Hints:
Three copies of one chain form a homotrimer.
Chain A: E1 4-7, E2 15-16, E3 26-30, H1 36-40, E4 46-49, E5 62-65, H2 69-80, E6 89-90, E7 95-96, E8 101-102, E9 107-108, E10 113-114, E11 119-120, E12 125-126, E13 131-132, E14 137-138, E15 143-144, E16 149-150, E17 154-156, E18 161-162, E19 167-170, E20 175-178, E21 181-184, E22 191-193, E23 198-199, E24 204-206, E25 213-215, E26 220-221, E27 226-227, E28 232-233, E29 238-239, E30 244-245, E31 250-251, E32 256-257, E33 262-263, E34 268-269, E35 274-275, E36 280-281, E37 290-292, E38 297-298, H3 299-325
Parallel strand pairs in A: 2-3, 3-4, 4-5, 6-9, 7-10, 8-11, 9-12, 10-13, 11-14, 12-15, 13-16, 14-17, 15-18, 16-19, 17-22, 18-23, 19-24, 22-25, 23-26, 24-27, 25-28, 26-29, 27-30, 28-31, 29-32, 30-33, 31-34, 32-35, 33-36, 35-37
Antiparallel strand pairs in A: 1-5, 20-21, 37-38
Amino acid sequence: xxxxxxxxxxxxxxxxxxxxxxxxxxxxxxxxxxxxxxxxxxxxxxxxxxxxxxxxxxxxxxxxxxxxxxxxxxxxxxxxxxxxxxxxxxxxxxxxxxxxxxxxxxxxxxxxxxxxxxxxxxxxxxxxxxxxxxxxxxxxxxxxxxxxxxxxxxxxxxxxxxxxxxxxxxxxxxxxxxxxxxxxxxxxxxxxxxxxxxxxxxxxxxxxxxxxxxxxxxxxxxxxxxxxxxxxxxxxxxxxxxxxxxxxxxxxxxxxxxxxxxxxxxxxxxxxxxxxxxxxxxxxxxxxxxxxxxxxxxxxxxxxxxxxxxxxxxxxxxxxxxxxxx
Amino acid sequence: xxxxxxxxxxxxxxxxxxxxxxxxxxxxxxxxxxxxxxxxxxxxxxxxxxxxxxxxxxxxxxxxxxxxxxxxxxxxxxxxxxxxxxxxxxxxxxxxxxxxxxxxxxxxxxxxxxxxxxxxxxxxxxxxxxxxxxxxxxxxxxxxxxxxxxxxxxxxxxxxxxxxxxxxxxxxxxxxxxxxxxxxxxxxxxxxxxxxxxxxxxxxxxxxxxxxxxxxxxxxxxxxxxxxxxxxxxxxxxxxxxxxxxxxxxxxxxxxxxxxxxxxxxxxxxxxxxxxxxxxxxxxxxxxxxxxxxxxxxxxxxxxxxxxxxxxxxxxxxxxxxxxxx
Amino acid sequence: xxxxxxxxxxxxxxxxxxxxxxxxxxxxxxxxxxxxxxxxxxxxxxxxxxxxxxxxxxxxxxxxxxxxxxxxxxxxxxxxxxxxxxxxxxxxxxxxxxxxxxxxxxxxxxxxxxxxxxxxxxxxxxxxxxxxxxxxxxxxxxxxxxxxxxxxxxxxxxxxxxxxxxxxxxxxxxxxxxxxxxxxxxxxxxxxxxxxxxxxxxxxxxxxxxxxxxxxxxxxxxxxxxxxxxxxxxxxxxxxxxxxxxxxxxxxxxxxxxxxxxxxxxxxxxxxxxxxxxxxxxxxxxxxxxxxxxxxxxxxxxxxxxxxxxxxxxxxxxxxxxxxxx
Lengths: 326, 326, 326
């Protein structure tokens, strides 16, 4: 970051807080003029500030002038932040089925229910009210937040974060219409979550029908996302809130799907492609391209179409008269 | 309401029910002709009826002729309705951490888990299977329905209703791409829910990154809504089902966001503005305006554009010929 | 299916698996050339294969040549699949209120909470961490997956499947603005789920305000769907993921609502109508028709409008010049 330090160079920093809530072990930052009054009387230990505020006085023990305090703060945060305290052990109220395997230093929270034959890896943490289905495998250093459900057929890799209320491995939406009824197709595929995946609160990911549903390593999924049976998501993708991905779609490595977008079944989103918010995608998207709109098209084309429609509204009457005269 | 009563003026009313399910302590109403046969043989104690049905006979003990029976019913309901029975006390199976503070007449349901240092205010009700994180503060007269999760960093005001499966204070979706991976930005801001807020089932509201996420007093939020980190919602807003609000957006007092609409990050929706269902909003909306469509524009402009497009479809071929001839 | 069997006609089949995971009691299938190498060395007992692969050798005990192996597999699956083992009985940690009625061979899972006066029918299964409200009725042979919530006022028929995290019978979103506040309208209607309905994970269905919310027999609902108060869904409908249905809407028998579509309040979707993904429907849709787009129109009309807009973008400048010259 290359910032210039003024004040107590040995000032202690243990955590991060906004200027008005910071205490004498907190790092804070000043990026906008309207927060300057808070800066002048903050109890923060150290403050990252933009060059334009360098002349202001402060009650902080030290300050560091950097070009972009917010970026600097984000860069520092992961080093500063310590994971919440976790006490290894199985809570007295947790219920473990027959043949459950627990790794070293595992934490199983109150009222967690772990069914027969499940395996929880070293240092993983299953929180309160979680249900782990029969035979589920959880890798090492993973954390499942309260009230999540891992249906039978689910596998988590290492360092996976599953937030509260997530449902993994639920039956996909598949029926055959027979004898005047929608007859359920049993789902026997798996739901595989690879290493370093994070899954946001209340997201649902169905298991495969016969094949598997797979979320690739390092992919991050936001809240309230729906991923249907047999979908394959590649590595390092970002899937934002309320996205819906229909059955058997593929999303290749590094793609970004913005909020509330919907992907049709059996299509492929190419590597590093970007899909705009609320887009409705019904066909393949080539690698690296940005698509938007409904039905989704290359973003430039969507913008041109939107602009043309706005201009059309002003001239449609005259156009109709022109056409009538022909 | 000024209705005219006929029949037993002392007829007892304890609850509200449709004509076909009403019993002799129920109030009911008749607003549409097709329910007239039910009216004639209802067991209801009292029926609110529209003037056009005044001549019909009924088995009800009394009837009240009012101009708009449905509105009258809505007006009466809140007075008629009694909150469900709540027995103060901590259920034997609830688990309370170290230093948990409970107010007077609190109810803690079966299998609720309340972590270290949390505080629950007078007459508040934490239902079955709820997880309350370390240090969470719940005000007075609030109710948290089953299986909700309050992450550490969450604060509820007074008279707040949090429905089943709600997740408050989960980590926001924030990463920096570094060393060929999406590195998680720790979230240390708070999730603040002010007084008189109601939050619908399975809705998710993330905590702030460093700053806070705040839901203003008297705002009502429907089911399956997503509210991202650092969002600020004002007072008395209505946020309908499946709305998504991206990071750091602001919604000012009294705004109404209709179902499935999406708000982009860092934008401001002005006071009392109305956003139509499914709208995709990518820029600021001035106070008091109604916007719709994708990308969202003032509603009048969206309507004109939609109408122009419909008319365009009928003349596009001729327009292309006209242009070619030039 | 009329397939031709080669190999051990008595080969045993107990389950279904992809070629690479199949063991000697599994049925598998080969439909695409790229899986042929797996076919040649599979441990599957029996493989369904398309005619074009009939010449390939395999390690499977038997193979059956059929025209469409995938369809054949789907047809066989329901017969092959055995429901997961269920042990009747009430878990020692389940909490039953006063006057709860249990049918024969019921299963109540660990930490389930069943409130006063609820009734669970024969052979029904309430899984871990489920909350069943006071007076709720569950029919026979139904299954409620972990962490679901049935609010008071909910009724389930027979053979109903309620997936993890579903919320049934929560209060609808109804307020009257009075005394400078959104005053809550109490909800006293019911949430009625008829026979053979399946409801996907984390879906929410509100109870009626005074009237009821009803899901008709044989209807299937996907994950993360929102159904508001007083909605009536007919029989044998399919409601796909993330659909939102506003208050008092009606969906008649056999209609199909595709993913992320939104239905406005008080409208009627006719019998067997089909609504496309992401459509925004604000008016009635006649029986049997297919509608799409925003605002939704008959699908043909939406397609024509989309195509016209794309072509417009190429000629809008020339059109504006034409109009200016007039």
